[in-house]
Amino acid sequence: MFNKNIKLVITFLIVAYAVYQFVEGEIGNGIFLILLSAIFIFLYFRNEIILLAFLRMRKQDLVGTEKWLSKIKNPEAALVKKQQGYYNYLHGIIYSQKNLTQAEKYFKKALSLGLNMDYDVAMAKLSLAGISMQKRRKREATQYLKEAKKLDKNNMLTEQIKMMQQQMKKI
């Protein structure tokens, strides 16, 4: 909802007022204000709109996810680099149902910007492997599959990887 710079200014103002409360002897108010400022620091690193879009994605509501993502007008200015990665990652998932070329562009941009969790990187590479496979680029698809398999440490994507490898043999 707020720009990332506005969040930092609000945090600074809250912390300054908390220090004032400590000086005045209102320790409880100061502690509460420090905890309140922690919320804004958290939201600086985790954008609230992207968090709400992920909640929509968990419910398999692609239209709702796209609606939340459309509220971010200028992602380069409003989001930190990793948040831009997740913004593109979510767009890639949405467009993988509609337009594969557009989805491929979003997934590659998400990987170049960076994603925090290995599972998300593996999922993006697995999706890119599927897109490459559908476009008959077998060498690129096998490379993405190998990278996805390497990143899938919790074996959450093993079934999908095996299924794609079986489909690759048919090509």
CATH class of the largest domain: Mainly Alpha
Query: H/E series, N to C?
Result: HHHHHHHHHH
Q: For the report, how would you describe the main beta sheet?
A: none
Helix content: over 70%
**Count of alpha and pi helical runs:** 10
The portion of residues forming beta strands comes to: under 5%
Task: Tell me the CATH architecture of the largest domain.
Answer: Alpha Horseshoe
What integer value in Å does the Rg equal? 21 Å
- Tell me the CATH superfamily of the largest domain: Tetratricopeptide repeat domain
Distance between the termini: 47 Å
Structural class category: mainly alpha
The overall pLDDT average reads 87
Characteristics:
Serine Threonine Protein Phosphatase 5, Tetratricopeptide repeat, 171 residues, mainly alpha
Polypeptide structure, described:
The protein is mostly helical. It folds into 2 domains: 1-45, no CATH class; 47-170, Alpha Horseshoe (Serine Threonine Protein Phosphatase 5, Tetratricopeptide repeat). The protein is built from 10 helices and no strands. The protein is elongated, with a radius of gyration of 21 Å. The model has no long low-confidence stretch (mean pLDDT 87).
